[in-house]
């Protein structure tokens, strides 16, 4: 153990979740259905008509009833921050009604009370892959401009309610994924194969306007609030030194960077306008949209799991596993049990890139290893010996420390799924990320009991030493 640490004092260590992956209680407390309630296989299969018993998210890990105990476990690890999302359909069950659901609002009051009790800072995602189902079915989600108004109303409602006690807010989870996972990310009910590129970029535009509007509303309500955008960060490397590969890298990066450019600089960058023009895409952009864009974010947050390669050679364009943004596998990197390529150095690279490009403080709001865990008994105590998870997180944090040494400003780091939860892409329980094991399985069986894994103590030590124990 070294005694020095690159992590600044006050660094926000913690964990991140999403309502639909932990809460359960899908039809309690006045909640309406969300798209997730009809996605029993995640994005691996089309949605169902009605909620079906094989959908693990309907009960998830029952955080709705167990939040106080779970937050106490986070506090035991020394969490400084806890990222969670508000289920939009708990507040506006349909999404387009006039009045919010008080019972839904009261639930998050209680969650915030609990966090406050333990001195844990909340970090709230306003929309995390859980658009109200009614908005998806009636308006085709973010393909409709009307969603901006519904979202603004929802945002104003929760900001007025919690804005005096919550400093950090995120507008849309992984906003750049709307181009790749239209239902999950954009609440778009039309099957992906029936959507044109123009329709996807239009949906992205409406979300970007709504995101900037959320920033405006938050600052109106409380100027001390810090609003962040949230991006999937996937560093892209050229498969070979061929300039055609480097150009393919740049094109792939542009398709993601324009989301951050708009959020931080308040306008479409030239390369994006050229792309749209050359694709024959004419977006519905109003002067009011342009004005709204000027409300830029206070910080940039992102998820980081993997990097990919790109090539200009169509013959080599094999897609990697599990990566919704596409890309070619990297021959130099190992992969997780789900085929996600593991690249700690990529975190240092992308953090430097984002900082150099946008000069906004960064927040790593997701990073972690989804793995199959085995519950064992050690000295009469049930646990998981998850050294593989400790190694993964340790290596990534060392690289984040390197980025900080490089001069990158980083506000905090929240691991994905500090407690086991239902996975987003495959809707499985067996893809576990947590420091805390939850006894629930892919067939829905299990007691929902919680057990501390080996990584639980490891993370507690990292936090207590502010990263010096890495
Ligand atoms: C991110 C999402 O893309 O990755 C989370 O924001 C998700 O919701 C996480 O859970 C990990 O992906 P998965 O598919 O392993 O759950």
3D structure, described in words:
- The chain has 470 residues and is of the alpha/beta class.
- The chain has a single domain (12-464), classed as TIM Barrel (Alpha-Beta Barrel), CATH 3.20.20.
- It has helices spanning 19-22, 63-76, 88-91, 102-117, 133-139, 146-162, 182-186, 197-221, 243-265, 270-278, 287-293, 344-358, 387-405, 454-464; strands at 12-16, 81-85, 121-125, 168-170, 226-233, 236-238, 299-304, 308-310, 362-366, 376-378, 381-383, 410-416, 436-438, 450-452.
- The strands form four sheets. The protein has an eight-stranded parallel beta barrel, surrounded by four helices. A two-stranded parallel sheet has the order 6-8. Strands 10-11 form a two-stranded antiparallel sheet.
- Strand 10 (376-378) and strand 11 (381-383) form a beta hairpin.
- The site of 6-O-phosphono-beta-D-glucopyranose has 14 residues, from loops.
Give the topology, please.
Blueprint lengths: L11 E5 L2 H4 L40 H14 L4 E5 L2 H4 L10 H16 L3 E5 L7 H7 L6 H17 L5 E3 L11 H5 L10 H25 L4 E8 L2 E3 L4 H23 L4 H9 L8 H7 L5 E6 L3 E3 L33 H15 L3 E5 L9 E3 L2 E3 L3 H19 L4 E7 L19 E3 L11 E3 L1 H11 L6
Parallel strand pairs: 1-2, 1-12, 2-3, 3-4, 4-5, 5-7, 6-8, 7-9, 9-12
Antiparallel strand pairs: 10-11, 13-14
Helix pairs in contact: 2-4, 6-8, 8-11, 12-13
6-O-phosphono-beta-D-glucopyranose binds next to loops.
- Secondary structure: number of strands: 14
Helix content: 25-40%
Number of helices: 14
CATH topology: TIM Barrel
Order of helices and strands: EHHEHHEHHEHHEEHHHEEHEEEHEEEH
Gross morphology:
globular
User: What is the name of the CATH architecture?
Assistant: Alpha-Beta Barrel
Give me the secondary-structure category. Answer: alpha/beta
Keywords: Glycosidase, Hydrolase
InterPro entries: GH, GH_1_N_CS, Glyco_hydro_1, Glyco_hydro_1_AS
Protein name: 6-phospho-beta-glucosidase
Active site: 366
